[in-house]
Amino acid sequence: MMETLSERIRLAEHLARRLPEVTRNEWMRWVQLVRRYGLMPALRYAERLAVDPTLRPAMQRANRLIAQAVREQRTYLEQLSDKERQEVLGFVAWNLQIRTVRGSERVSSERR
Questions:
Q1: pLDDT confidence of residue 99
Q2: How many domains does the chain have?
């Protein structure tokens, strides 16, 4: 079990690294499903969307990455209280946002 905040932050950073093509918005949509229905139903939903032929390939890939990353860390995530789990998922969103900002800064500096 993750006793400390720093352990939960490390878990969130690990999850964020496993989501290279997932935007913060895509992640937050999935987090809303976790809040409403729970971790496992949200995980199964992401797995279904990952193979849904009606979705754009980028959306399929984002859901596949979310499902893979969460499934790998499922044991740890299930051991957390709901509050701690939401905290970790929020830290993931924060990491994804930072990565997006850094990426856009890098692109703008390369254009100069």
A1: 77
A2: 1
